[in-house]
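Check out a protein:
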Amino acid sequence: MDFPWKWVLTISLVAICHAAADPPSHMNHFIQVVKWIETEIPGLPPIGLVKELRKSAQLDSPFIKRYLGALDDRKAVLNSTVSEYLSTAIHHKVTESGVEKGVVLTSDGTTVALAPLLLGIEAGLQSVSKGRVRGLYPLALSKTLAVSFLHHSRSSSTTHRLGPDGCWDSVTSPKMFTLSGVPSLATDAQVNGGMDGVILGMEVSNPSRRAIKLSTLLNQYYNYRLRAKGLDSAPRLISARRRQNFVRFSRPGYLKRQVKGTLAVYEKLNRDKGKQKKTSEATLERIIEGGIKAFDHRYTECPAIIPRCQWGAEPYRGTPTLLSLPLSFLYIHHTSTPGQPCLTFEECSRDMRSMQRFHQEDRGWDDIGYSFVAGSDGYIYEGRGWHWRGAHTKGHNSKGYGVSFIGDYMETLPSENTMNLVRHKLAMCAVSGGRLVSDYIVHGHRQVVATSCPGDAFYKNVQTWEHYREVQS
């Protein structure tokens, strides 16, 4: 007898949508609703489905219509309960208290705004029937960036061009996402959703690609489980590769041209409404140049860093000591215990909490000792961070950052991707952000403290790194 999946989906839908005013804010919940719609309306193609999602969220501004056309005025095919859930889940806004709505937590620990993601996918799907990709960047990302850059240029110095990230009230049952600082008009969640919208929009626009259901596309992208080799053996199209995939799609100068063109369209639409005067060409160039430079640093030079609040850090005990930047050294460690690489956000977070507990309770330190920790899930985890002195390399904590790789590397190496994340991305981010000097020195922990850390096999590899140096007597 066949299992009654339709009953299961219906029950799940009731559970997900029971409180549309306060729905569960996880990508997996959203995917379940999409899957339920696909099951209930089997003849609805992906392009029809994303349009229904857009209709539920009332995403039909003049700017969107310019690229996707107006939504038809036929009655929505979705029932009111589903439509209400979707409207709440997709419609983006930031409240006066700094709570960001219209965003979801994903399985890899990052937060994504749904609206730019879905607009990018719709632009890609629409191109299949029309023969060319139109509006992908403007709808998914470049309008968000253009408006934020413009707002920043016209506001006080307290505003930001980009960010910030934030913290969920719970990573197991997320409901409320609170930003960690003054919001720009392009929060990290909006940029994540925009980059994903571009990546998946490009993917579905490929006419040679076999058409798949929207729920399948989202599930494959956000819920791929890494194998033992981590990202080294993972497929290309997964969320943990978001930043490297976006760089691959955005050739040098391409995003800048997209933002410039989008800003011209946006300003024209507003001038037509009598809302805005035209910005001079020279001013636009200056605004966009500064904005793209900030974007490149934050999202392409730097790796994605999981903040302390996301992995469940306990508060610092005592008063932290501020570092005097830029620093001159990068000290490489392995954790030894935990002895196995972590491959998921859940595993890496658990390891971070375990290490912090050991450092605070057993060793009596104020906090986890490391500045940063590299998981094998494609992410860096914030320890004491960029600004506070760590407790990682005795006698040298004020001179450099201590970065540890989760696992025991006496006989094996971390994955190539994980090593590159620190060796190239984190280090480049630190230099371009003024936190490390450009001629910084890499040392293995064992070079300055009597220890086997970072493991025999790994230390041999560290000795081949460009900035590795022997200790000067």
